[in-house]
Amino acid sequence: MSYDELKAIYDDTSGWLKFIEAKLAVFLTFETGLIYFLIKLNEGHEKNLLFLILGLIGVLVSIILIIGALLPTINKSLNPLYFMSWTDKGYDYTDSIKHEHYKKQIREVAQVSKRKMCFLRYSIIIYVLSIILVVIGTYC
User: Fold this and answer.
1) Longest CA–CA separation in the chain, Å
2) CA nearest 127: which of 27, 21, 23, 20?
3) Residue 74 pLDDT
4) First to last CA, the chain
5) What burial class does residue 17 get, using C-beta atoms within 10 Å of its C-beta: 0-12 exposed, 13-18 middle, 19+ buried?
6) Are the beta carbons of 13 and 110 closer than 8 angstroms?
7) Which helix (H) or strand (E) element contains residue 67?
8) Which residue, 16, 36, 112, 128, is most buried by CB atoms nearer than 10 A?
């Protein structure tokens, strides 16, 4: 692969990572709003409190998963390409170093994207189950 192809793949993979992180941030905001709704819904009502509490716990677990997914995982201090790309603009390193580190960085960004999508998937599943529990607790 040429340098330009590796750079294009890296840029595309980084773009997907940014997209996933934006989805995580939006979903985190939405879930935080649901916690407020659940607390207000429970005020003055003694309906199925167990289902409401389980729903609230589920939403909290879902939020914890999303926060865990938003935490950075790449150790940039071990990646010379990262530092060469912004601190040493005039540094002349060989093409083999560029290729090797671009491949490594593409692999790392892809793994981080996959992990974040997995966290998001589990968070959505728990979130939907929590909403079902809240609906059961409210209307039954």
Assistant:
1) 70
2) 27
3) 56
4) 61
5) middle
6) yes
7) helix 49-70
8) 112
Classify the C-alpha dihedral 93-96-102-107 as positive or negative. Answer: negative
What are the pLDDT digits (tens) for 104-122? Answer: 878 888 888 888 899 999 9
Q: Which two tokens stand for residue 87?
A: 């601190």
Q: Which residue is it, tokens 């989805």?
A: 23
pLDDT exceeds 70 at position 6:
yes
Burial class (CB in 10 A: 0-12, 13-18, 19+), 60: middle
From the list 57, 97, 54, the residue with the least C-alpha distance to 79 is 97
Q: What is the pTM of this model?
A: 0.69
Q: How far apart are CA 121 and CA 127, in angstroms?
A: 10
The string of pLDDT tens digits covering residues 27-72 is 888 888 877 877 777 666 666 778 888 888 998 999 998 988 887 7
CA 113 to chain centre: 8
DSSP 43: T
